[in-house]
Design brief:
Structural class: alpha+beta
Strand content: 25-35%
Mean pLDDT: 82
CATH architecture of the domain at 122-162 and 300-471: 2-Layer Sandwich
Number of strands: 31
Helix content: 25-40%
Distance between the termini: 32 Å
Radius of gyration: 29 Å
Strand order of the largest sheet: 7-17-18-24-21-20-19
Largest sheet: 7 strands, mixed
Low-confidence stretches: 1-95
CATH class of the domain at 122-162 and 300-471: Alpha Beta
CATH superfamily of the domain at 122-162 and 300-471: Bira Bifunctional Protein, Domain 2
CATH topology of the domain at 122-162 and 300-471: BirA Bifunctional Protein, domain 2
Length: 596
């Protein structure tokens, strides 16, 4: 029998169903009895417990348990099913229908509360822009990396892996241009001693229709800049009619305007400096002496480690162009104003591929293939497509080395920002290292005399930004009665906890022993499994929903008789399956495959 809820009058809107002590549906529970459910398989009968209506599920538990629940009818309370109308939807189809249920601060609080992400060194105050991934965050992050590696490296025959050093000779960064050019424009507030990225400090002159200008307004870019500056301008204009604001950033301000623009920190003019370049690389020293010869840097990107190893890797692995080298690793940027939680931090992790192609090949076609591949990967791990879009860089938006670049952008709670970039870097990096090192970076075409320096297509994805985007996509809420409850709808392949295993009750001990044995068996298959016997079964289900666990297996009294267990799905809790205990591992294998 299909194990679904059984209503008394099919085809009609169901009345409020009754919740019984037993297996939970969301935070509620179903009457668990294989015999009773089979008697009402037609969906037209009512289970007479002297109550209003009862949830029934096919093949769920022994009749003894149902009889016990009948005697405890006073414990019953109402539960509206999750499939009913009293439920918030985090994202409907189409970006225009989407509305976040929480702002960024809500996600920060969720991450800390549920063990995903903590501020680093918090007991000492810590530095801004550094974060520690908690138990669930570490699992989610590692699962994302495993899925990316499995798809981009193990799933292809033209990409191989590399893991290069974080600290290398400064000659690498000198040749790549990072020592001289890897900088952001910065302005200082002389009064508050705060520093701002000049291209993120926005300002506008406030001009009246008839009386000239009345001053300037400014703010650090965050959310709807135009609306915030207009609000500040109206206050400054004291209700008089204004001309439309022309919004600029501090890199566009003249010396005279810098003196008149108020600092966001003090709200007073005259305390800001002009924009100047600030190098974003972290300096360090190598060896026991601190002098010019020991100076080095923490790498600002993983790409350069691939470029300097490209020729050796291609020779050792006998790779023919086109081929790619993939790497996952830490990078460091001394951001002037780290903000927006994980989106802009000082220590982060990248997943990058440098894909080497013939300079005569159609680089735009190859770039488009990688854009499509990355888009499909993001969808596969659980990002909502209604929050994703493309942005093509042109003209002065292109980096000096790039022939073309397209970003996949994501609509975060604080605005739409870059998540992933696919750049056509040309031969710039390999030529720079060839000139600086004196080593040839040419590729010899097998069986021909032809040689060339390959061009490069680079798909680059920040894991921390993906982590945040996935949380934003997965978060959902539902309402049961007067209670609003949160849950995370992670894809099973990346969920921090793949499956939870519960004994229905702590006694008899045989239930606990069976549940612990099942949990051990699933762990040995490589799944992250949580065993929990504390609290009611409904509360245990809710705890798992809140951290995104897709499946819960419950060992009940039927298990002792026939070695079968119930499997509850987070995203469809009204549809509970019953299967042999030895089939659970195969079930998880099938359900947790990353769509290719």
């Amino acid at each position: 029998m299909d194990p679904r809820i059984v209503w008394t009058a099919p085809g009609k809107e169901p009345p409020r169903p009754t919740r019984l002590a037993g297996h939970g549906v969301g935070g509620g529970a179903w009457a668990h009895t294989r015999g009773f459910a089979s008697r009402f398989a037609s969906g037209t009968s009512l289970m007479p417990l002297g109550l209003s209506f009862v949830h029934l599920a096919g093949g769920l538990a022994a009749g003894k348990l149902a009889a016990r629940m009948t005697r405890k009818a006073k414990q019953v309370r109402c539960l509206w099913p999750r499939s009913g109308g009293a439920r918030h939807v985090a994202c409907a189809s189409g970006a225009g229908d989407f509305e976040y249920l929480m702002d960024l601060e809500g996600f920060v609080s969720l991450c800390k509360r549920r063990g995903f992400v903590f501020p680093s060194g918090e007991i000492y105050g810590g530095y801004s822009g550094f974060f520690d991934y908690g138990p669930l965050g570490a699992e989610l992050k590692n699962n994302l990396k495993k899925m990316w590696w499995r798809r981009m490296v193990h799933g292809r025959d033209d990409v191989i892996g590399l893991d290069s050093a974080i600290v290398t000779t400064p000659s690498v960064h000198q040749a790549s241009g990072h020592v001289d050019n890897f900088s952001d424009p910065m302005v200082d507030c002389k009064e508050s001693k705060q520093r701002f990225r000049a291209d993120q400090l926005m300002w506008a002159k406030v001009e009246l229709e008839d009386e000239g200008d009345v001053g300037y307004v400014s703010m650090v870019e965050d959310g709807n800049v135009e609306a915030a500056l207009n609000k500040a301008a109206k206050k400054l204009a004291e209700g008089k009619k204004m001309k439309p604001l022309i919004i600029k950033d501090m890199t566009e301000a003249s010396e005279e305007e810098v003196a008149l623009i108020p600092s966001p920190a003090t709200k007073k003019p005259g305390s800001l400096t002009g924009a100047r370049a600030f190098n974003l690389m972290f300096e360090t020293t190598v060896g026991p002496y601190s002098d010019a010869g020991s100076k080095s840097y923490l790498r600002p990107e993983t790409a350069q480690g691939i470029f300097v190893n490209y020729k050796q890797v291609s020779y050792v692995m006998r790779q023919k162009v086109p081929f790619g080298i993939a790497q996952i690793g830490k990078a460091f940027r001394n951001e002037i104003t780290p903000r927006q939680f994980l989106f802009r931090s000082r220590e982060f992790e990248q997943m990058e591929i440098e894909y080497f192609i013939d300079p005569d090949a159609d680089f735009r076609a190859v770039q488009e293939e990688w854009i499509e591949e990355m888009w499909n990967f993001l969808k596969a791990v659980g990002l909502k497509e209604c929050l994703m879009d493309r942005e093509v860089h042109e003209g002065d938006k292109l980096a000096h080395y790039a022939r073309a670049c397209t970003d996949i952008i994501f609509r975060y709670p604080f605005g739409t920002q870059e998540l992933l970039g696919v750049a056509a870097r040309g031969e710039y990096d390999l030529q720079q290292h060839a000139q600086a090192s004196g080593q040839s970076m040419e590729y010899q075409v097998p069986g021909q005399k032809r040689k060339f320096v390959p061009h490069v297509i680079e798909p680059s994805l920040g894991i921390d930004r993906l982590f945040l985007a996935l949380l934003c996509s997965a978060y959902d809420e539902d309402v049961v009665g007067d209670e609003k409850r949160s849950l995370l709808r992670f894809h099973p392949c990346v969920a921090p906890i793949t499956c939870a295993v519960f004994p229905l009750m702590k006694k008899p001990p045989a239930l606990v022993e069976k549940a612990q044995a099942l949990a051990k068996q699933l762990r040995q298959r490589g799944w992250n499994v949580l065993y929990d016997q504390a609290g009611t079964i409904g509360k245990r289900y809710r705890r798992m929903d809140e951290v995104g666990t897709p499946f819960c297996c419950t060992v009940d009294f039927d298990t002792l008789e026939d070695d079968t267990v119930t499997v509850r799905r987070r995203d469809d809790p009204l549809e509970v399956s019953r299967m042999p205990i030895d089939a659970v591992a195969r079930f998880l294998d099938d359900e947790c495959q990353l769509p290719m």
